[in-house]
From TrEMBL:
<dbReference type="InterPro" id="IPR052552">
    <property type="entry name" value="YeaO-like"/>
</dbReference>
<protein>
    <submittedName>
        <fullName>DUF488 domain-containing protein</fullName>
    </submittedName>
</protein>
<dbReference type="Pfam" id="PF22752">
    <property type="entry name" value="DUF488-N3i"/>
</dbReference>
Amino acid sequence: MSEIGLKRVYDAPEPGDGVRVLVDRLWPRGVRKEDLKMDLWLKDVAPSPDLRHWFGHDPARWAAFQVRYRQELDAGNPEIAQLAALADKEKVTLLYAAHDLAHNHALVLRDFLRGV
């Protein structure tokens, strides 16, 4: 497994980012498509709309969100498989728009890809 980084879409790209993958289902607010340096946008690795709405970035629901999101990831889909294969070969930086650095789906996704 290669290195998997995390970065908010609002942070400047860096040469060491590797393959930059947007992992949000919705396009980030305030970011023009032509301004975001990314290599892939994999919408279907993000939590389902129902799970995203239920979580609502409420830290009190964080533990339950992690369990539910991992269940969705375990169910798999072609985009999850594509991201896992990519992360096996080269450095990947997962891009996300959430403001909360400690309670967001990209953290769970990174740990899932690492096998943690």
